[in-house]
Amino acid sequence: MKFKNNKTYIIAEAGVNHNGKLSIAKKLILAAKRCGANAVKFQSFIPDNLVLKDSPKAEYQIRNTKKNDSQMNMLRNLSLKSKHYFSLKTFCKKNKIDFLTSIFDEESLDFAQKKLRCNVIKIPSGEINNYFLLDGILRKNKIILSTGMSNLKEIAMSINRICKMEVYKFKKKNINVSLHKLKKIKNRITILHCVTDYPVENCYANLSSINYLQNNLKLNIGYSDHTSGILASVSAVAMGAKIIEKHLTINKNFSGPDHKASLTPNEFKLLCSKIRELELLKGNGIKKIENCEKKNLLVVRKSIIAKNDIKKNELFTRKNLTAKRPFLGKSPDRINEYLGRRSKRNYSKNELIK
């Protein structure tokens, strides 16, 4: 996956915040576009293929929906029909925003790859060790892999499984990377640091994992942000995240598991604005004299001058030379060219040494 002009790829995670309604899903697409997101992402799943009938809800799902029914009942109310995904993809294309979807079961993967023709497949955290699903990913597809609830070894093993080659090997606690094989997948897979809770408390965000994953996996790393507010996402960009994924909702008071941990359109617009502002602040990382500095250089830097009167044929020493602003003569870093040499003429105190 390539990132143009060092720009962060911002994903508005619509997820299931459409509450099973196509009309709300389209409103989320329009909101994401207005906010400045690069993509809007939904979730593809078939409830009967995802959970057992009596599978309980997660604690946050009970808290946010205020219902203690089964996951199955909740997911049936949040699912979209197959035809809706075609409609949403077309609507995204019309509004010039990328369409993405997370895959939660094998049948949905097959639908996304072969019928919906998705070029990018998002694998959510809960499926990172689901080899039934990972084995079905086509080699031509690019992958975004979320890593909540996992460790480095599980992530590396999942990448090996997706790519159908041993890119990473483990020896005790160390990970060895095959640089030859890594080159083949470098632009295909992006890993998202993620902590699976809604919302995530700041003490668990662990943003340093972005650098940890990059150093160990040698891949592009992004961040799927479940914290409250925008600080974590903006900070992640400062730490090198190439993708930012954040939940978007039309209304935080809607009934559903993810609305409370989502941003409103106004909040999401601020997030996009701050990320773009930070990108300007980051620059390209090459240390050089910036154009804006050149006008100040002559004023702020110094020239070699006579510290006191110097007579012709007198030796230049540190006692009779010094440096003062402005930079209109010889740079002080050339002092060694003068020390120990004899002056060819008289100099007055504070005169530039020629």
Précis, in short:
This protein is α/β, with parallel strands linked by helices and 354 residues long. Helices cover 36% and strands 17% of the residues.
Task: Outline the secondary-structure elements.
Elements (H helix, E strand, L loop, with lengths): L8 E7 L6 H14 L3 E6 L2 H4 L8 H7 L5 H8 L3 H13 L3 E6 L2 H10 L4 E4 L7 H4 L7 E5 L5 H12 L4 E4 L2 E4 L1 H7 L3 E6 L7 H4 L3 H9 L2 E6 L5 H8 L4 E5 L17 H18 L8 H10 L2 E4 L14 E4 L30
Helix pairs in contact: 1-5, 1-13, 12-13
The whole-number mean of residue pLDDT values reads 95
Q: Please write the string of helix (H) and strand (E) elements.
A: EHEHHHHEHEHEHEEHEHHEHEHHEE
**Percent helix among the residues?**
25-40%
Structure classification: alpha/beta
- Biggest sheet layout: 8 strands, parallel
Q: How many strand units?
A: 12
Overview of the molecule:
The chain has 354 residues and is α/β, with parallel strands linked by helices. 36% of the residues lie in helices and 17% in strands. It has 14 helices and 12 strands. It has helices spanning 22-35, 47-50, 59-65, 71-78, 82-94, 106-115, 131-134, 152-163, 179-185, 202-205, 209-217, 231-238, 265-282, 291-300; strands at 9-15, 39-44, 98-103, 120-123, 142-146, 168-171, 174-177, 189-194, 220-225, 243-247, 303-306, 321-324. The strands form 3 sheets. Strands 3-2-1-10-9-8-5-4 form an 8-stranded parallel β-sheet. The chain has a two-stranded antiparallel ribbon with strand order 6-7. The chain has a two-stranded antiparallel sheet with strand order 11-12. β9, α12 (231-238) and β10 form a beta-alpha-beta unit. The radius of gyration is 29 Å and the shape is elongated. The relative contact order is 0.12. The model has no long low-confidence stretch (mean pLDDT 95).
